[in-house]
From TrEMBL:
Chain ranges of the hAT-like transposase RNase-H fold domain: 319-418
GO function terms (MF aspect): DNA binding
Keywords from the UniProt entry: DNA-binding
InterPro entries linked to this entry: hAT-like_transposase_RNase-H (IPR025525), RNaseH-like_sf (IPR012337), ZnF_BED_domain_contain (IPR052035)
Protein name: hAT-like transposase RNase-H fold domain-containing protein
Transmembrane segments annotated in the record for this chain: none
Length: 486
């Protein structure tokens, strides 16, 4: 049916009379897209109110049944999957994989999320969810390995992997070892030397959680206080009334933390500290409220929050998904270690004890990640080799040259990887096939780049802009490393 409709696309233009042709198939696709986008239940198509609403908008549109909508949604899924697969397979860059387990809040079922990260031809970081699948219990290393391997082979990317980043736990370690045995090691970057990466944000979470155990009792009391005054609407109203009585200007809402994520604990403490006087006043009005922290515990929480502000910002940076994080890690990891060293000499005993625990955990994981993040920092035009020398001199006064040489050696290995791609990976970047061996001229160019004055620019984005002083060689190497998620 052809209709005439008024359109007004621009605020400063008068309405235009245009022709419109109703297409039942297009309308059905848009309904399926809306169900996907807003997570509407399929039963919405059975709702009388929705049918009446649809009929009022367009009497010609016949609302389809659930099965029809389910089939339409699967069509959209297959179309989008095909588009994504074409993008992933055709891209010359290696893929960095991240995987994590999620638990549904209502059914307590485990799901595996597998995401691929790569830098496309326009030097934009792309992230694609390859699979989000239910994994039945028990979540053993064999079960997790099989699910991940099936996903990689289904997408035909098992020979294009640069690294796999997972949370730090014994099951994941065993799963990665098992996966290693099932993949062709010759197709892996550097023979798999960078295959297993541990999530920096997760490691930082473990480090800070160990430190927070020092004031565990105080945190529990604050958590119980927040839980008590948010347990019912009546208590929330009483809390808000007391806030007004004391003229507290903050508008932040109380919120419980997630026990497994320290940054949520930090936010809970930070907000609770704003309402310290409110909690004290309410303890005098409500005899059932018996979890008020002592003045000493409030003081500990305040001191700890002051110290953790920097770590909170770093955690947010590490958790970014729309930009490369590897090149940001090295200077921030070094700054964290320097901060912890200062905390060890704090006049506050609680801060000293917290720092001691955090340093033990930090040193345990430092050697695992510092190689690849060091290389990434060198390839960042803003940092280069200078940043390694600066921080290593502070952290390793007597052996900093050896530490710099370790990262330099890894850089040379990557240079060889870039110039001598395996038969499975014909190359990354436009120039990968121009040389079949690592030569002195390449090493010389690379050394000149590393020693050249650092440039103020954004990593990744400016490498496509004539590389602004960055050699073509390092441009290609960056494609190998910058998509790795740490």
């Amino acid at each position: 049916m052809r209709q005439q409709v008024l359109t007004n696309n621009f605020m400063n233009r008068p309405p235009l009379l245009t022709s419109y042709s109703f297409d039942h198939e297009t309308a059905r696709k848009e309904l399926a897209s809306a169900i996907i986008m807003h997570e509407y239940p399929l039963s919405i198509v059975d709702h009388v109110g929705f049918k009446r609403y649809s009929n009022a908008l367009q009497p010609l549109f016949k609302v389809p049944c659930r099965n029809t909508m389910k089939a339409e949604i699967f069509k959209i899924y297959e179309y989008q999957r095909g588009k994504t697969m074409s993008l992933v397979v055709s891209n010359a860059s290696r893929l960095a994989i991240t995987t994590d387990m999620w638990t549904s809040s209502n059914q307590k079922k485990g799901f595996m999320a597998v995401t691929a990260h790569f830098i496309d031809d326009s030097w934009t970081l792309q992230s694609c969810i390859l699979r989000f699948i239910y994994v039945p219990c028990p979540h053993t290393k064999e079960v997790l390995c099989d699910q991940l391997l099936n996903c990689l082979m289904d997408w035909n990317i098992d020979r294009k992997i640069s690294s796999i980043t997972v949370d730090n736990c014994s099951t994941n370690d065993a799963m990665i070892d098992l996966l290693w045995d099932k993949l062709d090691s010759a197709s892996l970057m550097l023979g798999g030397e960078l295959f297993h990466m541990r999530c920096c944000a997760h490691i930082l979470n473990l480090i800070v959680k160990d430190g927070l155990d020092v004031i565990k009792v105080g945190i529990e009391k604050i958590r119980d206080s927040v839980a008590y005054w948010t347990a019912s609407q009546k208590r929330e109203e009483k809390f808000e009334e007391t806030v007004r009585q004391l003229n507290v200007t903050s508008t932040k809402k109380l919120g419980l933390d997630c026990a497994t994520r320290w940054n949520s604990t930090f936010l809970m403490l930070q907000t609770a500290l704003l309402y310290k006087d409110v909690f004290i006043r309410l303890s005098k009005r409500d005899a059932q409220y018996n979890s008020l922290p002592s003045e000493r515990e409030w003081g500990f929480a305040r001191d700890v929050c002051q110290k953790l502000k920097f770590l909170f910002k770093v955690t947010e940076l590490f958790s970014g998904t729309k930009y490369p994080t590897t090149n940001q890690c090295f200077p921030n990891i070094c700054e964290i270690r320097l901060e912890l060293r200062d905390w060890l000499h704090s006049e506050n005993q609680v801060i000293r004890e917290m720092a001691k625990r955090m340093v033990e955990k930090f040193d345990k994981y430092w050697s695992v990640v510092h190689g690849v993040v060091g290389v990434s920092a060198v390839l960042d035009p803003r940092y280069k080799i200078n940043v390694l020398e600066f921080y290593f001199k502070l952290l390793f006064p007597t052996s900093y040259k050896e530490e710099v040489d370790k990262v330099r050696a890894l850089c040379y290995k990557l240079l060889k990887e870039y110039q001598c791609p395996s038969s499975m990976m014909e190359g990354i970047g436009d120039s990968s096939s121009q040389s079949s061996s690592i030569d002195e001229e390449s090493l010389s160019k690379y050394d000149v780049y590393m020693l050249r004055e650092s440039k103020r620019m954004f990593a990744c984005g400016d490498w496509s802009n004539g590389m602004a002083g960055l050699t073509e060689l390092c441009n290609g190497m960056a494609g190998l490393i910058e998509n790795i998620r740490v």
